[in-house]
Design a protein that fits this description.
The protein is of the alpha/beta class. It has 25 helices and 22 strands. About 45% of the residues lie in helices and about 15% in strands. Strands 11, 12, 13, 14, 15, 16, 17, 20, 21 and 22 form a ten-stranded mixed beta sheet that branches. Strands 1, 2, 3, 4, 5, 6, 7 and 8 form an eight-stranded mixed beta sheet that branches. It has a two-stranded antiparallel sheet with strand order 9-10. The protein starts with 8 loop residues before the first helix and ends in a 16-residue tail after the last helix.
């Protein structure tokens, strides 16, 4: 039924990229193997002359070596370490058997007709061998896995084919090099090229490139080199705003950690700072003596990157009203030789902050804000300052995130679980919200808000035939749901199968079921807009007919968030029948469109910092299972009916956010989702035509947001959660 995005645009884009990428690797493998075979032929030809052997012996022997070498070439150039070469090797070596037979026929022919030596004759055949092997490989072995392959994918929306071609990649890179040269000169360009030359991965990487970068390579690719830091130091001296920053440095604990932290501060590119050393019990006194307009509380073991203060002050110059700035961070080994576990964070996410202290070890805070919240209450008890940060974000209006690694943590243990629970309990009390805090992991929590009253939930299920799917969905609701105050409205969309009509007759008298008919061409948005006025629940739950309830508390888990006035929509955790994740939130941008994050992850996986298992904010969630308040639904006039199949739910959520509402994902509402079961395959001419039109409308409507990027997804990660 109407799931946005119906077609997995991310997979289509990756397939297109992999096709171009693999073709390039086939060319490299063909060159390597053919040239290897030629060198082997020369060596064996001269060796054969010593023993008076015919030159065809050298050809046969060198070709057998080439076929053996094809395995190595295929493994190194085409699939590297992905493990697929064993299955595909026979295809690859088969090409060289064909080349061998052609050689066996052509070589004597050329030697006899042109009257030249075998070595020169073989050299004349080389270009034809390279071209033939490349064409055969790329034509028969590099097609995408989708049913219609490239012929069908060429009809996909323009964004799918606009990126990823080798010509496009090289042009983009060349343009960037010219821009750098014009802006910063040759020395800066040379600095960047030296960094990239150490990590070159041809063809040059784009946002569509499959994950293959180590974190070490990411560091070299993204972080500033000494020449850049020197230039930025000179630029910072000309900034109109150069506030003094007071760094409060706790002296408790390891002296080596303190020494390293001081050295890192003294190496800062930005020059206006002061260090105030203090123990945890006297942080309030240190706050009062701080002369800076902003303070930094550097947690024990925290080591600043050289450009940490520079980047924060740069943001202050861009947005003077900022009150809190936090950044990405990683961990560093005891001897400082290696960095690991990078934590790339989203923009400000209230729900995630209540699930864990994701702001981390380095925050720049306006001093007046720290004083207004009462300073460091109980600081000696909670060295991780979770309580302090929660009190800050309760009052702060302008919170900024810098998506760069600006702090390295060393020798720092996780927040004590009981202290974190206590901090969250105080947080809820100050906000006037009733609820309970549950510890769900080391440093991870679930805030279980109390449901106010007993509001009715209207579950709306569009359906067409496939009665076994619908009945499984309805039965799972009745059998597993613990929340009692709900009813179900099934909206039939032109069903014609006798089993379906018989099932409708059986359930028509059920007190919790209402049957409605929408006898018009399929339009998911129109069907739901038609149904809402014919229901009476204070809360609306849009549900696909191809879902099955897993967690009995699913309605409670969604309702506890949907009832909060600042929240506009709540999404759930959906699994494929095999247990892989189908939906754990939707991100937008990254070249247009929308993607499900963590798709195909293993059920129960901790994934990236356990994000699948934590309540958090997203830009959108799928309408395969989406809850909202009736008042909010009516406020934005429901779903936009120009999105009949795709992007209807993403557009719905973005219009909510446009009005100031938040979108929340909860992993405690869990269902199975047999994606697109009722409506069939997404790879049809009609589906692609509808997707193309929907994507054009979506990009036109939300162009500004798409260009800016998703605030709840770090730009250093691709939709799969891997480094870019």
């Amino acid at each position: 039924m109407g799931l946005g995005p119906r077609v997995d645009e991310g997979r289509v884009m990756r397939e297109l990229w992999q096709t171009h990428n693999k073709k390039f690797r086939y060319l490299a493998a063909s060159l390597w193997n053919t040239l290897f075979g030629y060198l082997a032929f020369i060596a064996l030809y001269h060796l054969g002359n010593l023993f008076q052997l015919h030159y065809l012996f050298a050809l046969a022997a060198s070709q057998f070596l080439g076929i053996a070498n094809a395995y190595l070439g295929y493994k190194h150039f085409v699939f590297k370490t992905q493990g697929e070469y064993l299955r595909e090797y026979f295809k690859f070596s088969g090409v060289y058997w064909v080349v061998f037979l052609v050689n066996l026929f052509l070589l004597p022919l050329i030697v006899g007709w042109v009257h030249i030596g075998p070595v020169l004759a073989q050299a004349l055949i080389l270009p034809a061998a390279i071209i033939a092997s490349y064409v055969i490989h790329s034509r028969f072995s590099s097609k995408p896995s989708s049913p219609e392959n490239l012929a069908k994918l060429r009809g996909a929306p323009r964004n799918f084919s606009a990126h990823g071609t080798l010509r496009h990649i090289l042009w983009v890179r060349l343009s960037k090099m010219i821009q750098i040269y014009r802006k910063a000169g040759f020395s800066e360009l040379w600095c960047i090229l030296k960094k990239k030359s150490k990590n070159l991965n041809w063809p040059l990487e784009t946002s569509l490139s499959p994950f293959g970068n180590s974190y070490k390579r990411w560091i070299c690719k993204h972080e500033p080199c000494p020449a850049q830091l020197k230039r930025e130091r000179e630029e910072s001296r000309q900034w109109g705003r150069q506030p003094l920053i007071s760094i409060l440095l706790p002296t408790d604990g390891d002296g080596d950690l303190l020494s390293d932290a001081v050295k890192a501060i003294e190496s800062q590119v930005y020059e206006r700072w002061e260090i105030i050393k203090t123990d945890a019990a006297h942080l309030d006194q240190a706050l009062e003596t701080a002369r800076g307009e902003f303070i930094v509380i550097l947690s024990q073991g925290g080591i600043l990157a050289p450009h940490a203060l520079l980047e924060t002050v740069k943001r202050l110059n861009e947005k003077p009203e900022t009150e809190i700035i936090y950044s990405d961070e990683d961990k560093i080994s005891a001897n400082g030789s290696s960095r690991f576990e990078p934590h790339f964070k989203p923009e400000w996410s209230p729900a995630l902050m209540r699930s864990c202290n994701y702001l981390g070890h380095f925050c720049l805070i306006r001093k007046s804000l720290a004083q207004n919240v009462g300073g460091f209450e109980n600081a000696s008890e909670d060295l991780d300052h979770y309580d302090f940060l929660l009190r800050l974000v309760e009052k702060a209006r302008y919170i900024e995130h810098i998506p760069q690694i600006l702090c390295h943590a060393r020798g720092v243990s996780d927040t004590d679980a009981l202290l974190g629970k206590k901090a969250l309990e105080g947080h809820l009390k100050r906000l006037g919200q009733a609820g309970q805090i549950e510890i769900v992991g080391p440093g991870f929590y679930r805030v279980r808000y109390a449901v106010k009253g007993a509001p009715k939930i209207s579950i709306i299920i569009p359906s067409k035939d496939k009665v076994k799917v619908l009945s499984a969905c309805v039965d799972s609701i009745f059998q597993k749901t613990t929340y009692p105050h709900y009813d179900i409205s099934i909206i039939d969309n032109q069903s014609c199968e006798s089993d379906t009509l018989r099932y409708y007759k059986e359930i028509r008298k059920h007190p919790k079921i209402r049957l409605l008919s929408h006898d018009k061409p399929y339009n998911y948005s129109a069907i739901n807009n038609f149904a809402v006025p014919r229901t009476d629940g204070e809360f609306l739950l849009f549900l696909n007919n191809d879902t099955e309830v897993i967690s009995p508390e699913w309605l409670d888990a969604m309702l506890e968030h949907a009832q909060q006035p600042e929240i506009g929509a709540v999404g759930s955790l959906l699994y494929y029948p095999n247990g892989a994740v189908q939906h754990a939130g939707v991100i937008i941008g990254k070249g247009g469109g929308a993607w499900h994050v963590h798709k195909y992850a293993t059920a129960g996986s901790a994934d990236y910092f356990s994000r699948i298992n934590l309540i958090r904010n997203f830009s959108a969630v799928t309408a395969a299972c989406l809850m909202t308040r009736r008042k909010v639904f009516n406020e934005i006039h429901g779903f936009d009916e120009k999105y009949p199949r795709a992007f209807n739910d993403v557009d719905f959520c973005l219009r909510l956010r446009e009005r100031g509402y938040l979108v929340v994902y909860t992993p405690y509402a869990q269902l199975y989702h047999h994606e697109s079961f009722s409506r069939g395959s997404d790879y049809t001419e009609e589906s692609f035509s509808l997707l193309r039109q929907a994507l054009e409308d979506f990009e036109s409507r939300w162009e500004g947001i798409l260009q800016k990027g998703d605030p709840y997804h770090n730009p250093n990660l691709n939709p799969s959660g891997n480094l870019v």
